[in-house]
Design brief:
Length: 345
Amino acid sequence: MAIAGSPIQEAVAYVRAAAEQFRRDYTKVREQIQRAVVGHTPIVDGVLTCLFTGGNALLEGVPGLGKTLLVRSLAQALALDFRRIQFTPDLMPADITGTMIVREDAQHGRRFVFEKGPLFTQILLADEINRATPKTQSALLEAMQERSVTVGGTTYTLPSPSFVMATQNPIEQEGVYPLPEAQLDRFLLKLNVGYSNREELSEILKRTTQGTTPEIEKVLDADAIKKHQALVHRVAIADHVQDYAVRLVLSTHPGGQFATPQVTRFVRVGASPRAAQALVLGGKCRALVEGRAAVSVDDIREIALSALRHRVILSFEGEAEGLTTDAIIENALATVPVQPSDVRA
């Protein structure tokens, strides 16, 4: 048990003291986004979770649902550099990362210099990312994980903080290429954007057909974001809560100790260690938003779908049965016991 003045108690006290400012800033950014985006509250919260944990977000939905508007509104609410790349089949990797060009100096000598591409920004909107070929999609791999780009044997560091906020069309749409598994795994969360309901659609029409444009103010800068990211990492998580996150990830591994019968039958590849990181970091951010200094099991369960759905690959039999990865994860949430003592050896 922790004693008074112990490092654990000091850390908890610090998080509790800083949590209120975190909540205020989180709410400010969300309110600015909601000036332009109607509804989609869970999607907005998912994007903000990625922002405050330093992760990348993938938004999937049919065209016209406001995915691009959401990311642009986020960029407008932050005092960060922002660029947008419209992904198309003819886009090349060098169009994203940059390329070596010949430049003449004052002495009329020529030398190769690196011309940075649009990837060198703090918020990158990769719009309709799966309309580009896998070769071009893979140009983002290093940037999304190491926050750097290597060209011509030289590694260039991206600005800090940096995020990739990508939108994609459903795989069933025409003219799309599935993202490589290695790239999907680098997205902290995958957020499925659905249709607006009756009231939301009416509000959208009021905002967009009467000649008014919402004004979005910049309410947060890079230093504040990095400070909040550091705070998220300091949120406490009890051993049994972390163990639940671990067992939830292991339950997606077919044939493993914690795999459900459904997983063993219908899943080909389970979630990676990055999935466990996403569960814990997402849970920590959610705890702070609710004013708590420690993660609960409910926080892990709340973030599970968006953290795991893109990291589980169905087998041929699972696809033939018409299953979705969401159904697999929901089954795991219903069957994996919360308490470690409930697990049979």
